[in-house]
Design a protein that fits this description.
heterodimer; A: 258 residues; mainly alpha; Arc Repressor Mutant, subunit A; three-stranded antiparallel sheet; B: 386 residues; alpha+beta; PH-domain like; nine-stranded antiparallel sheet; 10 helices; 44% helix; flat
């Protein structure tokens, strides 16, 4: 009886068939890569044309930038992934956001000793604009948010915490979980919060509230006012708007705390 | 400027603050006036200006007086401006800084930026006319005077027409830009589809695509900013570009690292490198991907990731564990130290100082005292004594 699939001959035939199949597979991929290369060249030309007509629009118009970014996201393209990408090279979007990233890092670093690494998006925007000088382009809050999202990958703790319709920008690798975030949101209304308020608004036990507040104190994100009438108040320096006009050194800041 | 009235600057009941901006100068038409540096506040009802140096000096004009507004972009030596065209002042207007003016418009100069946001909000408020729904305590200057109405019709129509033309032109430019953008995105979408199809082929025929082809594919993805469908990374790490970048970084960072005790955080590196470049900056992802290749390329630097997620670049010759021994001595000398104190003593960034102390703790050399006054490290006597 002639057994099928067994024996040296059958194995050899099978191997030959596989080899031929593989070869075809490689050729297919090669074809597609060649096609992609051609299409890439065409796309590059299209983008160049677009840039020659509308590069200024992107540069000057924050709303247009938002549209552009949203459309890219919808189709699955990240124009800010690499400075070497076409988008960066030809539209100059990259340089705008990467430079903004540097400015954001510098502002956050300069203020860290005062606010523990938390700053409102609005204050960040004002200080970045000031640092950029008169001749630089205007920067919208959307621009800042996108730049910050890119900075996350550098590992130094950049993050965004939603509070009261805007954001707090975190720039230190402190662990802030849901509990911390919720208390920050509560404190945003007046700039400070008390244990009683937390208990009443969030219906937490005192101990839970205390732990969260202690963590914020340890991280330097909250300051304790034990001389407040009634019970101690926990203030967030990130929400002090008056501090803008004063420059306090870390030593002065320490002395200011009872 | 004769449309303004003195005010206390306090908001009336029913009036809400919308946005404010520091560093704004007021001009009466083309002429400068003494309102040079102030905070400009937009409420639902009024535009208020308060002098930054003298808070008593505060003037306001009702939004109902605004005919329309236009933007003037910044130029060399000039701040961005908003031009506000106003109805003539009504006869029952509260007294203000000027009795008369030869201009029917004022200019707001944004010396400290903020013009774009302010313009947007001002446009919204003028369109929504919320002051009509929310009557406030103060008598609003509604333009009931028929004489004034007639004057309005004559002088301003010409200006309105010119501005309408300009608006149409701008709108046309923007809609053309959007149209072109949409077409471009269609083409980009085709590229994304093609890359997915290639990635599927690669997945099916594992190991049948040559290394050369993989490298080519990754570089195409990089150009387009398409996430690598196989590995899910947005940068196609391991491209030629990142290899070259890694080698460049090794050259650029050698001296700065030596100057900083052999270690720098990735954020410091990002700022240093991009400030030096000035143009054609690196994206954060470019930097991370290049750094990930340092070790495999046998370069004299390496990327290290601490437990906290903090990423640093170290000289190969740098030995953090040895530095920990030195840190222990420093802490012992002083009895105890916080990260801030240690950083200042040694001349390091607080971020890296904290990582070193945490590492020392992990290795058992230091103990922590975690209180509301901060995190303080002590030599670990438990280990010593036993």
């Amino acid at each position: 009886m002639h057994r099928r699939g067994v024996g040296a001959g059958a194995i050899a035939r099978r191997k030959l068939a596989e080899a031929k199949y593989k070869e075809r597979g490689t050729v297919l991929a090669e074809d597609q890569l060649a096609q992609m290369s051609k299409q890439l060249d065409m796309f590059r030309t299209n983008l160049e044309e677009f840039a020659s007509k509308h590069k200024q629009e992107i540069r000057k118009n924050p709303q247009f930038r938002v549209q552009f970014q949203d459309m890219c996201a919808t189709i699955g393209v990240d124009p800010l992934a690499s400075g070497k990408g076409f988008w960066s090279e030809m539209l100059g979007v990259g340089d705008f956001y990467y430079e903004l990233g540097v400015q954001i890092i510098e502002v956050c670093l300069a203020l860290k000793h005062r606010n523990g690494g938390l700053i409102t998006l609005q204050e960040l925007q004002q200080r970045v604009l000031k640092g950029r000088g008169k001749f630089a382009q205007d920067v919208s809050q959307d621009d800042l948010l996108r730049a910050i999202k890119k900075l996350k990958v550098l590992g130094s703790g950049f993050g965004l915490i939603p509070v009261g319709g805007t954001f707090l920008v975190q720039s230190v690798p402190a662990e802030l979980n849901m509990d911390h975030t919720v208390v920050l949101q509560l404190a945003e209304k007046k700039g400070f919060v008390t244990i009683t308020e937390i208990r009443e608004s969030l219906r937490w036990e005192t101990e839970r509230a205390r732990q969260v507040l202690e963590h914020l104190l340890k991280e330097g994100m909250a300051w304790l006012d034990t001389q407040a009438p009634g019970e101690p108040q926990y203030w967030l320096p990130a929400l002090f708007t008056e501090l803008h006009s004063q420059e306090i050194t870390p030593e002065e800041a320490k002395e200011a705390i009872p | 400027m004769d449309r303004f009235s003195w005010t206390t600057g306090l908001l009336e009941i029913g009036e809400t603050l919308v946005v404010q901006q520091r560093g704004v100068r007021l001009s009466d038409g083309e002429e400068k006036v003494k309102f040079d540096s102030g905070v400009l506040l937009l409420s639902t009802h009024r535009l208020i200006w308060r002098d930054q140096k003298n808070h008593e000096c505060c003037i306001a004009v009702p939004l109902s007086q605004v005919v329309f507004i236009e933007e003037q972009a910044a130029g060399i030596g000039k701040s961005a401006k908003i031009v506000v065209h106003l109805h003539p002042a009504s006869s029952n207007k509260e007294p203000g800084p000027f009795q008369s003016s030869k201009y029917s418009y004022i200019k707001l100069s944004f010396k400290e930026h903020g013009q774009i946001e302010f313009y947007r909000r001002l446009s919204e408020e003028i369109t929504q006319r919320r002051w009509e729904n929310m009557p406030t305590g103060q008598a609003m200057q509604v333009n009931k005077d028929p004489q004034a109405g007639r004057v309005r019709a004559v002088g301003i129509v010409g200006i309105e027409r010119k501005l309408e033309e300009k608006r149409k032109e701008t709108d046309k430019n923007i809609s053309e830009a959007f149209e072109d953008l949409s077409k471009l995105m269609e083409k980009a979408k085709e590229m994304v589809e093609l890359s997915k199809s290639i990635a599927n082929k690669i997945k099916e025929k594992q190991g049948d695509i040559t290394e050369d082809e993989t490298i080519r594919f990754k570089s195409y993805l990089l150009s387009m900013g398409i996430a690598n469908p196989v590995t899910r990374e947005t940068y196609g790490s391991g491209t030629q570009y990142h290899m070259q970048l890694a080698k460049q970084l090794a050259g650029i960072l050698q001296t700065p690292l030596e100057e900083r005790g052999g270690i720098m955080s990735l954020t410091e590196v990002y700022c240093l490198v991009n400030r030096a470049r000035g143009l054609e900056l690196l994206s954060p992802e470019d930097l991370v991907n290049a750094c990930k290749m340092l070790e495999s390329l046998k370069l004299p630097l390496r990327l290290r990731i601490f437990d906290s997620g903090v990423m640093v670049i170290e000289l190969q010759s740098h030995n953090e564990e040895e530095m920990v021994a030195a840190a222990l001595e420093t802490v012992s000398e002083k009895g105890s130290l916080t990260a801030d104190e240690f950083a200042k003593l040694v001349g390091m960034s607080v971020l890296l100082a904290k990582e070193r102390l945490l590492l020392a703790e992990k290795m058992g050399h230091l103990c922590r005292d975690d209180s509301v006054e901060g995190l303080r490290f002590y030599p670990n006597l438990f280990l010593r004594k036993s």
